[in-house]
Amino acid sequence: MSDTPDPTHPTSTHENSFDTEDSAQTESDQADASRAGLWLRGAAVLAIIVVALTALAMLAGQSLPERTGPPIENISVERTALEPGRITLTLRNTGPDAVTVAQVAVNDTFVDLVGAADPIGRLGSETITLDYPWVTGQPYLVSMLTSTGLVIEHEIPAAVATPAPGVAFFGLMALLGTYVGIIPVLLGMLLLPVMRHAGSRAVRFVLAVTVGLLAFLIFDGTSEGFKLATASSGAFGGGTLVVLGAAIAFLTLTCIDRYLRGRRRRAGATGASELSLALMISIGIGLHNLGEGLAIGSSYAVGELALGAFLVIGFTLHNTTEGLAIIAPLARRRTPLLTLLGLGLIAGAPAILGAVIGAGVDNREVSALLLGVGVGAIIQVIIQIAPSLRTQGRSDLDPLVLVGVGVGILLMFLTGLVVPA
pLDDT category, 196, cuts 50, 70, 90? Predict the structure, then answer.
């Protein structure tokens, strides 16, 4: 009798199945072991690098000769606050050596100084208060004499009392956030029936105008951010903060958008309700509006009122189209009014939070970073709108779309001429 197993016999089939499962399990275990070994080798190399850099930092400094010559002192004024009979300066040491402010003179007159009794270390910050009866509208030159005899000057072009942020100011920011976020989104949701009956070219023209408005804001917001960074101490990167903020906002919102799109595709494939899809869209738009609110609040906080008005107008027009995006999945179902209001609040309310946070920032470098965040949000929004500008089945843009972009840029430019600074 032959010992060759019968392939038709059930026992032979089970044995082959077990062999296949064992082989697959072995390959899986080997892959896991290979990945674990790779991670261990990577961690070991990283540990060696950290130890080497730490040893280099500790030993290299001791091996270098002591520096000769006077210390390098540099102080920047990050903030100036004027109250009746008092000038308050927030100082930042941007040099490599500690600085001691010994005396301060205002317009060549030495004044009483309170604060900064101890040396200010590198990147350290101190606040000094000067007793001086300043006059509104007059220029002043503040001269700070260090302990080594170096004179560092700070100019106040025109003395004006600094408004103290209070309930009224933050209430104004909340109102602006409402204007930019909640109201236009709800209006866009109301306009959906009208847009459904309008032609597709009309919809694309409106979106093109919005892109033109936001494109103008990219350049305007970037220039204002760099201007703020230049006027700051530069201790934490200066203009690089604008680029960093834009990159962080753009990459973060892009990742969130891709994640939400994946969720929407999976939800649609599994037969999820239209309401859940609308909720996902509202959450994504709300994250965009948070960056928009930060840009508006920070621009108002640092006195850039014209830029703030630009942002309010531009984002308001844009957010009206966002309302259409939210309600689109609900076009074929009856949705309660309270549910629609809730979706509008989810999408628009973050603009209020962003405006309040941005208005509370009194540091020019942080404000520049926040303006960069707003720029990054604008770029990501334009990228989201761009596919809607192309006619289905055509590779080139409709000339009407190009006209709309130009109209948006021109409209924003003309608006800037009539908006008071």
Answer: low
